[in-house]
What does this fold into?
Amino acid sequence: MWALLALLAGVRARLEASVEPGLPFSMSTAAGRHVIHDVAPSAAAAGLAPRDRLVAVDGVHTSEWLREGGLHLVLGTANTYRVEKPGGRVVEASLAPLPPGARSFPLEALVSWGLLAVGLVYLAIGMWVWRLKPDRRESWALLVFCAVTAAMLVLIGPPHPPVPTLIGLTIPWIGAAAFHLFTTYPMEPHWAVRWPDLRAVPWLGAALLAAAELVAPRLGPAEGWVDAAVTFYASGLALLCVSLLARERFRSRGHPGGARTDVMLAGGFASYVPVVAFLIWHVAWGTTFPWTLSLLGFFVFPAAVAWGVLRRELFDVRLAAKSSAAYGAVTLGITGLFALTITFADALVGRFDVDASSPVFSVAFLFFAILLFNPLRVRVQRLVDRTFDRDRAAYRRAVREISEAMVSMLSAREIVDRILVAVSDTMGVERSMVLLMDEEAAALRNEAARGDWDDGAKGFSLAPDHPIARALWMRRRELAREDFDEEPDPEIREECRDVFDTLDVELLVPILFGVDLLGVIAVGRKLSGEGLGPDERQLLRTLANQSAIAIENARAFDEIAQLNKTLEARVDERTRELRDTQAQLVQSEKMRSLGQLVAGVAHELNNPIGFVHANLQLLDDYVGRLLQPGLDPERRRKTQEAIAKLLLRSREGTERVKQIVQDLRTFSRTDQAELQQVDLADEIDRTLALIEGRLKGIRVERDYGDLPPVRCYAGQLNQVFLNLLMNATDALEGKGTIRIRTRREGDGVVLEFEDDGPGMPPDVMSRIFEPFFTTKPVGKGTGLGLSLSHGIVGRHGGAMEVTSQPGEGARFTIRLPLEPPPQAEDGG
It folds into this structure.
């Protein structure tokens, strides 16, 4: 909120300065010193010059005049300015203010609006980092520092009230915020851990100086001393912070946070040192340019800190600086040699009076000079690359060798040993260990280790539900001890730290395959004492990824070897299970069809049997009459005729029963399980006769062509005809027409079963032959009838097709050869 208030005040001051009369010179202020660095022609004529110090205006000390609103100048009214020359001579000049738009000091405008932009960058960086990492202390410390610094930067500009007062109130807090940030990130000094209340001391000093700034106007001449104290308090604390960080970095060589410290140090030196140097120059000797010009590069520091906070892995700043310096020196040297060669050539040309004015000569000479120096440049560049990229080249070579070796490794122990060799020899670490997941024990156990380990570390095991195992699995990257510094739960934090302390290692790298944690690579410190940098971490991640694939392949090979031992028996067992299941499904469908068929046959049998039963009752009555004595002859004759008719009609009923049973027996072919020559038209008629009871209200149209006998399993094909006809009756629901057509086609026959029912949509028709697919309600169909029928036709060497349109019925077409394929001879 303070930064936003300062932003509004700074923008307001800049806008007012653009429409109000202004000073006939530009100046910059710091530590109570107001130095002129550019003058208008009228001021120059009055004796004012750059580096002069403005002491008073209209008899009022400059700081007091600025605080009391002295910049509210009036056009046409001259002001008396007292300035002190660099030699100490005091000069007074009466100058009228410049009208709006007449002031032309481009450097002043550039610095003013440039610092406003830098302040916005500060505020944006602080809020951005805090938004991304709100749970980390360094994010909050950076936000506070950025907000306070942004408030100062946006206020620096035209000193319109209350801007000078706000600047004086803001500057002390910059030093306190910087001290808080530097003692929080990237490494917390041991004394800050031991006495955390020491961080409050700079804040207390800032509060006292801010209070002094508020009462400064009442101190008279001492007001300048307050301004100086405020300025040097903030800059002194900033330099102290950089020095403390450099000292901690030197004492903690090899610390994993060294890269982040180097980045922060580089940003601090690039930002603070120029500012403090320009500030001292401004106070001691005065400058011919605004000292605030050095603040334009001030954004480097928060950018460096933000980069370090948001990224755990950073490039090696020292290596980059060394290599950049080497490349620069080499480039400078080669350029110097090239220039020396050109100069030497010119001297030779002049010495021997050669006509070098021709452009052809110049171009040819430059061409040969480039050819001469290019091999030298290439060789030197390769030398520098080898010098500064030696470790990376070794790492790349190690990765390549491991990748090639692990392709043929099928033993987990062999893979682990290869990893340890690469880690110990290539990276030069003092100790390393690989823990692999033991499925039986449900724990990560030591599989192999290199280096000096005590017995406790060698017997170390890690449960999968341990906090550090969960962190490795969830974060899916290498972890160091400091990664748990921000863990809010103290118990979890200490549990994770205990693992690093017990093993005395610097990094734990997870070996992950998919969502499974296969193992962990534990890596100690390097023998050189340096920390494991980004290149080493990248190598470890690559090794972990390569080993994960190799370990999983080894385990898969072991499983395959075990499976091969029992594979044949398991295949036979599964085959029998599948055959039994298939037989059960076929039998289930046959029983369902048989149940529907039996229901119809029972109805057909019930009619003649009931009729015969009734005739037998009448016959019993008629026989009783014949046995009565004294029966009238005419009546006896009629009774005998009635008995004859009853016997005739009963014989017809029993013949009907006999025919139905014969049709049923022929339909099922229970006594004929071999291939035989069959008239398919007769089989279709027989099937129609058996389901006659389901055909009431349905007209059946037969269009039989001249079919030759077909060699087949009649019982199986009857099952197909039954399924098609019963499906048609279900679709018609007692009303409609079934058309059956047969014809010869080439060396086979074609059978068509068509109904004028509701038809099928394309999505149903495309799945009609899938097992268990049915459109009937639950309990009304199994979805196996058409699938089994399709299989029966296929085993006979035929094909079964369906065509249908919604609302236009359905037609099933069966094509059968006259002779089935040889495989049908083996059981149909």
User: Anything to note?
Assistant: The two ends are 89 Å apart (CA to CA).
